[in-house]
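Tokenise the fold.
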Amino acid sequence: MLVQLGTGFSSGLPLLLTGGTLQAWMVDEEVALGEIGLFALVGLPYTLKFLWAPIFDRYVPPWLGRRRGWMLVVQTMLLGAIALLGTAEPARAPWVVALLALAVTFSSASQDIVLDAYRREILPEAELGLGSSIFVNGYRGAMLVSGALALFLADHLPWAWVYWLMATAMAVGLVTTLLCREPEVEARPPHSLREAVVGPFVEFFARKGAWYVLAFVLLYKIGDQMAAAMTTPFVLALGFTKTDVATVAKVFGMASTIAGGLVGGLLMVRLGIQRALWIFGVLQATSILGFALLAEVGKVWWLLATMVSWEALTMGMGSSAYVAYMASQTNQRFTATQYALLTSIMGVPRVLVAAPTGFLAAAFGWSSYFVFCALCAIPGMLLLLKIAPWRAADRP
């Protein structure tokens, strides 16, 4: 579990260094808003990582084994890319910054491929839920470091120093890699690159119900994602201040999300992954209705804090079961590629569903919009009848 915490931290650290933290640096350097907006494109490797994932299934480095060897390689690349990004000058050479940021996201996406495969292969089935939740909590803790802490440091240090300090924080991942053990996997790795590329898809789609699994991955979190996309505009529209948003979302919300992941992981040890998907799915769907209640009641601070905390808690629980379920659906011969495929599909609704949410909220009104978001969770829950029926639930 400590290994999952360390690798989760290593996975979460780079995300904001090419996102919100980098945007803050570019604002300080007075880069044009249009150019800052284009930097969202450097995140493409996170959605395309399944394209090169077969390399990590097929080839074994000559040191530390198939998973730990690649972990060491990509983490070293990542440390170097973050340090180099710190030497760039956004105002004078924004395209150099873009190329270095792309190098960071490519190395980070590659690290995610290998760490997801490692987690799936090292953890027994009964510990997969708890291990996944601890990994996610390490990930979120790292985002506080590369987000809030980095911005605080930038008020007192040059941006280059901030990025160099963030690069040294990657030592957490490197030390974890050197101290952990290589998974013992009975399934043989692919014999050729062709088998590594084609085999994962042939094996997955040959299974009965494979399309139901993909549909479930797309739909299980869709209601929650739609609600989250409009939470900040909704809270501001009620008359709360930006300070209220920061306090509630960043403090209450983050603490509740971390608690939800931990509670969800512990409950999964007893419930199993399949029954956890049912219980946590119902909780995260019904928690959205709290925002509909808030829309009717109006500006009540304690109710806002309660609703945000409850929604974040149930979202953390649902996410822990969701991530553990995806891991359980991979074949250990092709862990890296199949997990990368599922997590890439997982990200599609977050991008596509967020686009029309503003129009829907304006058309429905806030209260009806959040009721609609809760109803959007029903298709994903109904798919559980096919992929994880309650009576046939896994028993740890």
